Amino acid sequence: MKKLIIVIIAGLFVSCDLFHNTDIGNMLQSAQGTIEFNWAAVSPDLYSVKIYTNLVLTAKVTGTDAKIVSVEADLTSIGLGIVSMEKAGEIWSNQVWVKTVDAGSHTIIFNAVNEYGKSVQFNVSIRIFQNEAVYVAEWGDNTNSGLTNTAPVKSILKALQLYEEKGAAEIRVATGIYDEFINNTCVIMRPGMILKGGYDNTFMNNDPALYPTRIDGLSGNVYHVVVAVEGGKCTLDGLIISRGIANNDFLFNKHGGGILVLGTELVIKNCIIESNYALQCGGGIYVMDGSVTISNSVIRQNIAMSQGGACFFYNVSKADIDCTVISNTFAESGGGIYGKNIASFTMDDSVIAKSVSKKSGGTIYLDNGLFTLNNSLIHSGVLSHAPDGLDVYGAIAFFANGFLNMTGCIFSNNISSNTVNFTAIRGCGLYLSAITNFSVIQSIFFKSSAYSIYAAQGGAIMLANLSWGKIISNQISFNSNTATYNYGGAGIHLDNSTIPLIIDYNIFRANNPGTVYEGYSTAYPSSLKYNRFINSALLYSDYVGGDIYDIDSLNNLDSSGYNPPNSVTGNTTN
What we know:
The chain contains four helices and 58 strands. With about 575 residues, it is mainly β.
């Protein structure tokens, strides 16, 4: 009887407009629970699956308010149909044997179903290949098959054609200079492509240092040496990318002289990117709406007339730089790196040296994202000739609107100077603006110099616009930094930063004229403890309380009621 009543009531709702009410529809949808694919993957490699080989499928799926009861993979595109996966802990997996004869790109559709019958799909693209590689050598012939190391083709352009036609895993290029181009580009990467240089002429040895492989744009009107704009994932390995000139003021022909990346996941490793030019952004590398990983590489002598002399990143999900040297670059802003809207930026064990610039963020300019720098060196950057009336914020490094974690980094021998009236330099070494949370740990700021005939503040660090976090080092963290403005904070300048701000366990040595300066009434630290001030004429300049020259007065700073109780203590001059 109860079931009959429920059926009648349900029938009434179906027959009236109440059932179509948005709130009721949302309620019914919510009652089915949610399904989220954390990830799904195909191995051994998403883009290098060989015909007649084992294929391992894995996925992690999260269900909210409902249990996930099944996960399947649709491999119809490679002739295997629907494959059920088994759960082991949090991972669903299965192993299959690929027997397709159709080389090329395919899509595998993962489908998860919960106990209420709701389903969600997740797509993974793979590229199946038949041949190990296409081979290229200067001594080759374009009439060769290109599929063996004894019958290479002569040009990379021919290899690109064979890569698709013959279903190859990668293109291997022997030592030499390759300068052919088409449509103002030397190389157009395909999804899944691996372009690898550094081979000797027998292809038996691979060492990019001993067997340099150069792709060069100087022979013609080459706007971009390498272009990756077709999506997917592709790789450049062991190559020298040089002398692209993006000097055409039409769409993207003014960006990315060396490498242009749009909507693609690009991996760059063991490469040298040098002597490239862009009329506007990204002299060496330009990436938009994609991601990039750069490792064990050198990016040098690249120029962008606007932003990003070496690298320009915009709207990217990831930009990872590891064990890479960036040097001798120029741009008005971001001579080394310019990035905006980066979900995750990481720089590990890398160097940026000798960048030249004119505007804010002269060496590094990063705005909006999560920024992580570890064990990296930023040195000998120069900012000069700032435009009349345009203040400089972060002559060397500018970070804004996001989160910053910096550990074990060194800023050394960076110089910013200005001889134009009404133009101030605010933060020579590091300028933080609206950084929600930052940490600067065990890092060193050595000989950062801010000079201006008008005003120069923050020789090493300037905190502004409600930035808060912690600066803790346990070593000589601020040494011989200068700022020409008398109350400029040669070590740290606090300018409208907010609590909780922690400046503990640092050593300030020979910073001139002042070590720490509180710029405005909201700029005091919540903790200033156990710091050492050595060879410092002016220990501290308080916006309200005035200058502090002796350590006892500094340790009693909180007695004025301006700083929080017990916030300043344990500081010494030895």
